[in-house]
Amino acid sequence: MESQNTAYYRYICERIRESAGDRKIVFYGSQASFEAVFKEYQDMKPAFNLTALKEKVSDKVRLIDDINNKSDEYYIVILLSPTDNLRKKMKRLGYRDFKDCMFVERKRVVLGPKDVSYEDGYGNKVVNNCGFEITIASYVFNSQVIIGKGTTCASGAKISVWKGNSKLTIGEGCKLLKGEFLLSLNTEISIGNDVVIMEDYSVTCSRDTKIIVGDHTMMSREIRLRSGDGHAIFDMVTGKRTNNYAPDDPKSVVEIGRHVWLGWGAVVLGGSKIGNCCIIGAYGVFKGTLPDHCVAAGNPAKIIKRDINWSKSNFTENIDDCEPYLNEEE
Ligand SMILES: CC(C)(COP(=O)(O)OP(=O)(O)OC[C@H]1O[C@@H](n2cnc3c(N)ncnc32)[C@H](O)[C@@H]1OP(=O)(O)O)[C@@H](O)C(=O)NCCC(=O)NCCS
Q: Whose CA is nearest to atom 31 of ligand 1?
């Protein structure tokens, strides 16, 4: 199983290979764990190393000033911490970020509610942050947050992209109050259109898992969606891990249908598939499969009623008010 750092370094190697083209790859600084992955990745080797110190110059180590204005010849991989001074220096020497040089270390970025969009050379992208505080942690790569038109969130709502290769999409016209979405390595959270989530939610996608929520679904306060355990469990007799599932294994997925109502404090765990028009009762802890039009309640939540539908309005006695859009083809 690949660790987050190895996955990140492999991604960086791929980007370096693409960007460098025919140019010689040169290292500035050192970082043993990256260099090990780089060596293993398509057997790549730096042509030489760079130093800022004259006394360190040798056969394989040249002075940084020797590469001045030679970006057509060299692609520089920087293994030192990405300070502003170093960025300025690389620019002065004629090396553009990503095109001619790559800082291997990527610092954490926190986007405020007013940063509408964001993109970086490590494959990370935010389209319409819609008021969320979005943290893209250090070493995050190839991750996207895409939020649809007309979606609103309350102040204090957060998205934490914690590890790489993850994607959060939120549809149009959703209303999301204060809470947090968290994504680990190789994950996907997909929230449909017109979804409401009340205060203090936590939607957490552990490594290699998925959470999918259908259109018109409504979640009350303090709901928890968790697609994985987040820690390793072992069988002491066999010594084998018991809670490690392939990404396409149904046990790695939380799938909630269309027009589902999760009652106050409901918890939905990995390996759950909840059909359309269902209800999970207040404080229900659900794990398993629930057919369409059922109510499940309790801990563990079990079916208590079948053949129901529900309306967002509490001022109706007419079953036809139960969201007719479910019969429409969308
Ligand atoms: C799940 C729920 C919708 C069921 O309502 P209902 O269909 O009227 O159910 P009933 O009151 O007939 O209860 C049926 C059985 O389920 C049990 N039950 C109902 N809700 C339960 C719950 N949340 N947890 C555990 N058991 C529950 C009842 O005790 C009853 O058990 P019994 O048959 O042994 O007596 C409702 O109880 C509930 O939890 N509502 C959520 C309210 C909420 O969170 N609102 C937030 C608004 S956004």
A: 304
Asked if the model's pLDDT at residue 330 lies above 60, the reply is: no
Q: Which atom of ligand 1 is nearest to the CA of 295?
A: 1
Q: Is 86 in the same domain as 124?
A: no
> Residues 54-107: pLDDT tens digits?
999 999 999 999 999 999 999 999 999 999 999 999 999 999 999 999 999 999
- 155/259 same-domain check: yes
47 near 24, Cβ under 8 Å?
Answer: yes
Residues 56 and 129 in one domain: no
Residue carrying structure tokens 């991750």: 143
- Cβ(204)–Cβ(230) below 8 Å: yes
Distance in angstroms (rounded) separating the CA atoms of residues 297 and 200 = 20
Statement to judge: residues 27 and 133 lie in one domain: no
User: Does the beta carbon of 284 sit less than 6 angstroms from any atom of ligand 1?
Assistant: yes
What is the spatial distance between Cα 5 and Cα 290, in angstroms, rounded to a whole number?
38
Domains: count for the chain:
2
Residue 98: which domain range? 4-103
Q: Is the CB of 263 inside a 6 Å radius of any atom of ligand 1?
A: yes
Query: How much is the CA Rg of the chain, to the nearest whole Å?
Result: 25
User: Using omega within 30 degrees of 0 as the cis cutoff, is the peptide bond preceding 250 cis?
Assistant: no
Q: 71, 103, 135 — which closes off a domain? A: 103
Question: Do 256 and 150 belong to one domain?
Answer: yes
pTM of the prediction? 0.94
Q: Which two tokens stand for residue 261?
A: 């109502």
